[in-house]
Write a structure and sequence with these properties.
five-stranded mixed beta sheet; elongated; 10 helices; 220 residues; alpha/beta; 11 strands
């Protein structure tokens, strides 16, 4: 009998998510993101996992296809999904930043002279159009948003955009493409989220699992 369904993100969050589940005493067995199966059930434990694209986890949880989910804060911000954020799982750290070509930064006077006001009327390439638009609007800036699905750093180099909004982990990719981060929009880590209805109607089933996962963030 399946009591809870948990949506898991494929990709960079997967290894640490599996380690967290194991520490919390949840079944992992041969669970692997490389498995072609996307729906894996452990009936004895009452647990079912869904492997999803990171950007899709908030959607599966919001619409109740999953009771719980592990998603990056960046995916949550971009989706705007109405879910309950239960815990910061303290892994998968990265930053959502605004980055500009070094040439533009130097022309504006570098560290002493650069102002975000210089971005008024320019074009930004990003995989996070919702976040970018909200951020620039909050600053009173009109910036045209161009949505791309990957290799964002290429856009300024070929004249498609003047700047980018993207996730940065080590900063090596920015440096390799002669880009400089000039503003941080948000610091992002993996978050444990719940479907709103499940959080209220299945509170007892969720309680032990959530408590175990929260406790395991202290021991990782």
């Amino acid at each position: 009998m399946i009591l809870l369904t948990i949506a898991l993100s494929k990709g960079r969050l997967a290894p640490e998510t599996l380690a967290l589940l194991a520490r919390a005493g949840l079944p992992v067995g041969d669970l692997s993101e490389d498995d072609r199966r996307l729906l894996i059930e452990y009936p004895g434990a009452g647990i079912r996992y869904l492997w999803c694209r990171p950007t899709d986890v908030p959607v599966y949880v919001e619409y109740g296809a999953a009771d719980l989910g592990v998603a990056g804060k960046d995916s949550l911000l971009e989706s705007g999904a109405e879910v309950v954020e239960l815990a910061d799982l303290r892994f998968g750290f990265c930053r959502l930043v605004v980055a500009v070509p070094r040439r533009l930064w130097e022309e504006a006077g570098g560290e002493e002279g650069f102002s975000l006001r210089l971005l008024q009327g320019r074009r930004a390439a990003t995989k996070f159009p919702r976040v970018a638009e909200t951020y620039f609007r909050s600053l009173g800036l009109q910036v045209e948003i161009i949505r791309l699905h990957g290799n964002i750093e290429l856009a300024p180099q070929v004249g498609l955009a003047d700047l980018i909004v993207d996730l940065v982990s080590s900063g090596k990719t920015l440096a390799a493409n002669d880009l400089l981060a000039v503003a941080e929009i948000a610091a992002c880590t993996a978050r444990l989220v719940a479907n709103r209805a499940s959080f209220h109607l299945q509170h007892e089933q969720l309680r032990q699992v959530v408590a175990g996962l929260k406790a395991s963030t202290q021991t990782g």
